[in-house]
Specification:
This protein is α+β, with helices and mostly antiparallel strands. The chain is built from 2 helices and 10 strands. The chain folds into 2 domains: about 20-50; about 65-165, 3-layer Sandwich (Rieske Iron-sulfur Protein). Strands 1-10-9-4-3-2 form a 6-stranded antiparallel beta sheet, with no helix packed on it. The structure holds FE2/S2 (inorganic) cluster. FE2/S2 (inorganic) cluster binds near residues 126 and 129.
Length: about 170
C-alpha cells in the first residue's frame, strides 16, 4: 500500500477544530503562537545579555594617555589599592598600586563580550556574565575568558601617574 503523500494524492483532512476555535477566535492560531514564542525567546536572550546591574558595552576610541592625580583617589594611597580613574574620558580604565612607587593601568573592558567591569574589593567583576579578575586584570574565575588588557603607568614620585592607554 502506498502513502497518499508519496503519490501526490489528496492529503488527509485536518482534524476538526478545537472547541475554542469553534467559539470564534478564543484560541491561538499557529502564526500568533510562534510569534509570541519568538518574542519570549528574544526577551530571555536580551535579559541574559544585560542582567540586572549589567553594564553597557564600550565601543569607541580608548582615549589615549591618561594623567591621574593620586590625591584624588584615596584608595591608591596604599599598595594594592585599586580605583577607576578615567573620569568618563575614553575607555573605562583603572589604576592599581602594585608597589610604593609602581602602578599598573588596567582596562575595564571585559574580554568576554566587552561590558564594563566593576571594581570590587579584590579586583574586578563583570556584571553581565560574571567573569572575575584580580586587581592586576588576570582572569581568575566565573565566565571563562582571557585576562584584561593592561597598560604601563609612570609615577612622577610626587602625585601624578601617567597611564599609557592607547588612543
Ligand atoms: S561580558 Fe560576559 S562576562 Fe563580561
Amino acid at each position: 500500500m502506498q502513502d497518499s503523500h508519496a503519490t501526490g494524492g489528496t492529503p488527509p483532512a485536518p482534524p476538526a477544530a478545537c472547541a475554542a476555535c469553534a467559539r470564534g477566535g478564543a484560541g491561538v492560531d499557529r502564526r500568533a503562537f510562534l510569534s509570541a514564542a519568538t518574542l519570549v525567546a528574544v526577551a530571555a536572550l536580551l535579559e541574559a545579555c544585560s542582567a540586572p546591574g549589567g553594564a553597557a558595552f564600550f565601543t569607541g576610541p580608548l582615549g589615549g594617555q591618561l594623567t591621574v592625580k593620586l590625591s584624588s583617589f584615596p584608595a591608591l594611597a596604599a599598595v594594592g589599592g585599586l580605583a577607576r580613574v578615567d573620569g568618563g574620558s575614553g575607555a573605562p580604565t583603572a589604576l592599581v598600586r602594585t608597589g610604593a612607587s609602581t602602578f599598573l593601568g588596567v582596562s575595564m573592558i571585559c574580554t568576554h563580550q566587552g561590558a564594563t567591569v566593576n571594581v570590587v574589593s579584590n579586583g574586578f567583576l563583570c556584571p553581565n556574565h560574571g567573569a572575575e579578575y584580580t586587581a592586576t586584570g588576570v582572569w581568575r574565575g566565573g565566565q571563562p575568558t582571557t585576562s584584561l588588557a593592561t597598560y604601563g603607568a609612570t609615577f612622577d614620585g610626587v602625585d601624578t601617574v601617567t597611564i599609557a592607554r592607547p588612543a
